[in-house]
Design a protein that fits this description.
Elements: E1 6-10, E2 13-14, E3 20-24, E4 27-32, E5 39-47, E6 51-61, H1 87-104, E7 127-135, E8 138-144, E9 151-153, H2 162-178, E10 183-191, E11 194-201, H3 209-218, E12 222-229, E13 241-247, E14 251-255, E15 258-262, H4 272-286, E16 293-297, H5 303-309, E17 314-319, H6 322-334, E18 340-344, H7 347-356, E19 363-366, H8 375-384, E20 388-393, H9 396-408, E21 411-419, E22 429-436
Helix pairs in contact: 1-9, 2-3
Amino acid sequence: MQKNDIISLAITGYASDGAGVSRHDGLVVFTRGAIAGETISARILKVSQSVAHARVESVLTASPERITPECPAYPRCGGCDFQHMSYAEELRAKHERVNDALTRLGDTEIAVPPVVPSPSVTRYRNKAIFEVGSVDGRAVTGFYRAHSHDIVAADDCPLQSETAVAAARVLRGWIDAHDIKGIRNLMVRTGSLGAQIVIVASRRLRGTDALVDALRETLPDVKSIVLCTNSDDTNVVLRGEFRTLYGGAEFADTLCGNEFRLSPQSFYQVNHAQAEQLYAAVRDFAALTESDTALDLYCGAGTITLALAASARTVYGAEIVPEAVVNARENAARNGVQNAEFLLGDAGDAAKTLSERGVTPDVVVVDPPRKGLSPETLAIVAETAKRAIVYVSCDPSTFARDVKLLRERGWRLAQVRAFDMFPRTSHVECVGAFARG
């Protein structure tokens, strides 16, 4: 097999990134845009010692789950993986991914129920971050092509809110009308209490009054417009100087019965309706009583912490982002929650603080980044929790790895549920409950 060979492939399953999996001449072949059960004609793009990567040239035998992509930018845009298949098949692929990770990497045969579907498959994102650029002298907003910094222009994105799409249209018009340079990104957050718009520029901007007026006229639900000046040459979008152009400096929304206000940098689940179902599972798995103490690591602005507070004697949240801790403390006060305390620091700092106070949490909840728990944090969690660990994961592979490592420290995975937080992408979230023994 060599690059540019055209071969026939029978697709048998899916890789973690949603690519179709097949075998040919002893090699595993990954083909994006293929569906399990299909026979395709594929062009080989890359060959290594054990695997190859291919592109669909034509579908010889189509799956009944194949559909016409709703988005015209698919698959050029790097945002989606599953626009070419039915939602039912997407859920099946994600279920297969979770089961495969737990079996192969976690060395466990626990039964995973079907993936909890998202209440909405389109327009579900309450946060959009558009890349901003120029093509043929005209402003464009869109998203990076996969594995590149080439912007694929997208006047609409079926995953984003109508408010976000309209804000991007207004921004493009303002840039073209005033020949504005230096705009890097546009972030739009939408919620039940209004929307926030953050314009990210590489240098200070003048004459923003016209943009503010246009945004307010087009989008009456906008409550906050912020300018972020970020001159750093990095992939971090929201850093640098923040200046409020209109309204307040924070985004406001309600989640699980609590009202939250968040700085632009604070993490917040982007699929609101599905987040409520996921957090309900966290509460169920934690099974807190009014005599229990809980520790919520990676607590962000306190969304999970405050969801747990109603069921516990005391909850502690720990977070290393100072702005998020400020938000969390204010959110607790705003909602009249008096049994929640927020600690600035990592897992080690939180464990030390609680140990010095003689506090041993009955339940530890973790919601780590995609890379999962570091060895140091995993050891602290395993030693700190008295009765249960509840693990919220956005990557089945690192979750499965940590399942195995926690088992080596005396914790077994008692139950797990998978949630589709990001329809049309290959991402899937898990919530696992661990018990001793």
